[in-house]
Amino acid sequence: MLMKQLEMTDLGPLSYFLGIEFKEIEARIFMHQGKYVEDLLKKFNMFEFNMAVTPAKTRLVMSLKSEGEHVDATLYKQIVGSLRYLCNTRPNLAFSVGLTSRYMEAPKTPHMMVAKRILRYIRGTMNYGLWLGKLLKELKIQEANPMNLFVDNNSIINLAKHPVNHGNSKHIETRYHCI
User: Which ranges carry the Reverse transcriptase Ty1/copia-type domain (predicted)?
Assistant: First the structure.
């Protein structure tokens, strides 16, 4: 209908838009930012560094009064801004990236180290993303199977394996517990 009213061309199925890749796998749509992550790591010279297992250290405490030298605020803002865009398809990064966002006014060495650790983490999880089942449901397109979410569960697995940390996590509501 739009093609009759406006001059446009059908480019086929959506595959790449604004740094977000879409793949149809087994009649489901998978959304990720693998190419964006690769370009991001190359831009900030982090592609060759070792991968991190988690986006941030456990019990990480950051402060505006952290010791250390001031770092290039422009570079820090570029890294954090790029990571914030990545949260569109990687909700597991939201907490860590949000934490680093607090220190953009006057970042210091410890703040930059946390941002670079997030980059090292995404290096190992480049193709994580979302299945678009929920979006399809909102568009009134029926999907028979549950939505898969491919994110890192290492923190939850470690919590279950080490009951010593249980006291610190009582605020987490448990609905399902399967390991």
Answer: 1-56
CA separation for the pair 115, 108 (Å, rounded): 11
Residue whose structure tokens are 């397109």: 141
| Dist. CA 46–CA 130, nearest whole Å | 24
pTM of the complete model: 0.71
Q: b/e string for 129-147 if b means 16 or more Cβ within 10 A? A: bbbbbeeeeeeeeebeeee
